[in-house]
Amino acid sequence: MLKDAKIENFDDLKIIIDKHRETPGCLMQIMQEAQQKYGSLPIEVQDMIANELNMPLTEIYGVATFYSLFTLEPKGEYNIGVCLGTACYVKGAQAIIDKISDKLGIKVGETTEDGKFTLEATRCVGACGLAPVMMINDDVYGRLQPKEIVEIIEKY
Amino acid sequence: MSMIKITIDGQILEVAEGTTILEAAKKIGIIIPTFCHHELLDIIDGAACRICLVEIEGAKSLAPSCAIPVTDGMVVYTDSESVRSSRRTVLELLLSKHPLDCMTCVQAGKCKLQDYCYQYGVKSANFNNDDEKLDKPIDHTNQFYYYDENKCILCGKCVRVCSQLQQVGAIGLSERGYNTHVAVPFELKIKDSTCVSCGNCVSNCPVGALVPKRKEKFRYWETNKVKTTCSYCGVGCQMDLLVKDNKVVEVQPSDKGLANNGLLCVKGKFGYRFIDHKDRLKTPLIKKEGKFVEATWDEAYDLIASKIKVAKEEFGPDSIAGFSSARCTNEENYLFQKLFRGVISTNNVDHCARLCHASTVAGLATTLGSGAMTNSNFEVLNSEVIFVTGSNTTETHPVIGSHIKQALKRGAKLIVAEPRRIDLAVHSDIFLQITPGTNVALFNGLMNVIIDENLQDKEYIEKNTENYDELVSVMKDYTPERVAEICGIDAEDIRKAARMYASVDKASIFYSMGVTQHSTGTQGVMSISNLALLCGNIGKESAGVNPLRGQNNVQGACDMGALPGDLPGYQKVANPDVINKFQKAWGVELSNKVGLTVTEVMTKGSEGDLKVLYVMGENPMLSDPDINHVKEALEKIDFVVVQDIFLTETAELADVVLPAASFAEKEGTFTNTERRIQRVRKAIDCIGNSKPDWEILMTLMNKLGYDKVYSNASEIMDEIASVTPSYGGISFDRIDQEGLQWPCPDKDHPGTKFLHKDGKFSRGKGLFKPADYIKSAESADKDYPYILTTGRMLYHYHTATMTKRVEGINRLFPHSYMEIHPTTANRLGLEDGSKAKVSSRRGEIITTVTITDKVEEDVVFMPFHFADGAVNYLTNSVVDPTAKIPEFKVSAVKIERIKD
Question: Does B427 touch chain A (CB under 8 A)?
């Protein structure tokens, strides 16, 4: 989803909410699917979830900002997550991040102007054996060397 | 409940199972420090601050005493070296981010962080790191308080108070770890949140993060606390006025408040600045050649006494009438009616209950024998179904509104029947958006379903009621389909609501002026009573029929006999035994002729039949229907006295104005909506030359030849108790700490939590009084195509004489407005914020448009608080024939755009 895309259709969100509303503790599931649908959880989306579940917006916003996988701002088409867990860090993850920053001209947490890439530093992704690890959307790249970065990114 | 034996700091004690260590320690006088603890808050999302850690023998680590229930044989140390050292660490960690500016912090003296640092000898933060000090901007956007994030210790108490107690959830904890902070979603400002400015977060903040905006500088140790009863609305919240140098500088909820559980609303918490407002009347005024001239008390008293004497001699006592006040104390209302009945010899005494709950007093007295709320404020917490109709509770009785929402969180179901989509409607299980004026039809429809589907409580009906057969026969015609058409709702929703109400053991009904202010108000009230009786919902806890009374002491003013047909305790003037009793008690001759109501006084006045009108603490020039007619009446009456704290719209038309003391300047009692008689206490000296109303009334009585002298309000209450059976056991001594609920017939009686227990009604059996639906006096037509309904809003109170003098409130809502549906607005070419001319058969006003889908198409709503664009120029003065209450809720109007 592009950075400034407007949400025009709330019917899909209603369907997501209706699918889960009877399940106790359904909030996270709804938020996750809503984010998949809209790319982020902007105020309009959270507002609608709040109204439909008769829950204060504060509760939803609290959850959205607590978990790092939720985002309030739309992300790039490709989300690059570089693991900064202990193992990856020791194995030189910072150099990987620096290289990507260089290549794309963005800092951690930012999205490229064309809306294609977002760079994030993540917590342990559970692939310490492959350290240092980077994920681009669902693709995992392990045992990375900074010199490989340009080639990988150019694939996208 | 089984008892558990534990040892705390070497002391052995037994406590009930489920008690926390913190509570157990408190029982033996050991106070464990806390930041985030609050006894009414759910511990599940609490135990955050870790200052209450204690040592438990055998446990691996220290434990939060607020969250751990005691177990048998537990040995606890609350002040061991490891406990003390851990508390010091907690404090040092908190200080690492906290500014060390106690010398200029307004919270000093009430700051727990400051107190505990002193207690544990923590001077500075060992973990101090200047890079980590916050430098966040202060959020000043709320009118009444500000939020300084830099001082927040993240205990989360404000967030829990807001969501669990106030049930608003305006603020929350966002982000996590080191970045966690209290915020409005999306980091908006507080003014853009759902905050209702109740200030309960402010009252509970243990540090200086949420702080009231204040004008004067003071330190908490320089103030003294005076416990009193709030002078806004009928909830009767108990609060402490903080006084420095004869000035009220802050208000806090009183710890123990059987009416409010430590909550307040924006008016109670922040609406106190009217007390010493520069506009307060400070000296008597006499009108000479059309202008007010300052006068002495003696001049004013003599003039009033002579006018009364002359009118009485020339035209008879019934040429004199008085409006008592639902804002004054019981003692003052008692003296007011005594002055009129005993000294002037007329029963022409009434007050504004005529305009709000006269139909309740008449209706419930007929069906149940007592015209008051049957149950108590907190009982709603355990109701299984709550039916709210004709009441915008979260705005008009905010603390009861919060308790209703708390009950919903505990699993109660809510039915709302209202012309507007109010806040409670949003939270309801069934919302019936009825056309204004169709209440009776709706209640009948509900009863039709209940009878039809055999859901009634047959045993209760058999044992405790009479006239059931007539009810059945009248209800027969009110099928859901027919009612749905009358009310503009769905027939299936009527069925669902009826089943929901009838299906549970404890269902309570809350209603207010949406039911009473109709030409069929009494029938509306009796229909509610029918519904409750039908399901056996009267005479037990957490059920009942609960009229929410509007003003602080409107219940008391009625109880005290400020009604033309009733002496104190609803003893009828038409009953010769009653007259005899009072003649003996007061030593005077009494009239047995029922007097004039507020509405009748205006009619008689405009016909020239009234010579003197004495108005105490009322403002009919804004509160009464058809203001043009009121004005005509007041101008025609020869001599008008107004006794008030401000020069009201009514006072401007008076011949003599007497300056009265406010609630903060006198002793007395108010009786709240749940019949609880509570103390009002003097916190400051009278402003200027003003006097407590009871002193003024007593002096006038004396001037008119009745020599009784009372040296204080307590003596008046003793006299009230001696002649009023339901107040028989009330004295200032007994209610010093906590109020008592009437009936309280003798000194040993504990008061009455809920009425009509075990089917015993004060009239014998519960009476079914079925009524047919009758249309409102006016309906929309070609000339006046829209229906106007009126009501109240959260921030203002009654005719706003007090609230408009509270700066923050006045800034938020300075003038009248009209809520209108987008489609209607569009048709009329009106935009949000534009001006419109609204006219009825009685008058016209100009007001500001607020576009909202809270109201339905072709129905508009206006609050009645404002002098600027006063809606009562438009309202209909047609009255209910029984209760004489005017039909404020339905007027046909025309709306026109005003071109810029």
Answer: yes
